[in-house]
Write a structure and sequence with these properties.
single chain, alpha+beta, Beta-Lactamase, 4 helices, binds methionine sulfoxide
Length: 156
């Protein structure tokens, strides 16, 4: 397993293209879920320096905070609540350009302005979500959706 990331500057797509095989390498041979989620959050934070990036994992009827990088965050989210709970309910990636316009958005941090939440599937079932917050409005787009969906698919 490679232990240092090589950080590339360039277009967003080029940055993801460079990161993707490195994340693959980080996960190779490791089956521990917490270790893998922690390294994915760290790799994304190191490459993109987003405000907050991390996982919420389904435990019974709630999403529970998992490995993340960034400021402290809310620990439990009900199905259908906030952007994360809505992504869980609909099993779809949600891109929110302005969190203040999203009904029921859960403001863990007042600095967060836009957000993308990507569902994570294991054995065909939704198991959790990847949540990314930015301090800039409209920071996430279809490029983020495409690559983040590929990245969470790598989780063994
Ligand atoms: N804003 C999220 C809650 C999680 S924090 O952003 C880390 C939401 O509305 O679901």
């Amino acid at each position: 397993m490679a232990e240092d990331l090589s950080i590339l500057q360039g277009t967003k797509a080029a940055q993801y293209e460079s990161l993707l095989p490195q994340i693959k390498g980080l996960l190779e041979g490791e089956t521990n879920l917490v270790a893998n989620l922690a390294n994915i959050a760290a790799a994304l934070k190191e490459q993109f320096n987003w405000w907050w990036v991390g996982f919420y994992w389904i435990q019974e009827d709630e999403l529970v905070l998992g490995p993340f990088q960034g400021p402290v965050a809310c620990t439990r989210i009900k199905k259908g609540r906030g952007v994360c709970g809505k992504s869980w309910e609909t099993e779809k990636t949600l891109i929110v350009e302005d969190v203040e316009q999203f009904p029921g958005h859960i403001a863990c941090s007042s600095f967060s302005k836009s957000e993308i939440v990507v569902p994570v599937f294991k054995n065909g079932q939704i198991a959790g979500v990847l949540d990314v917050d930015s301090e800039h409005l409209a920071h996430f787009d279809e490029t983020d959706r495409a690559f983040l969906e590929k990245i969470v698919d790598l989780i063994p």
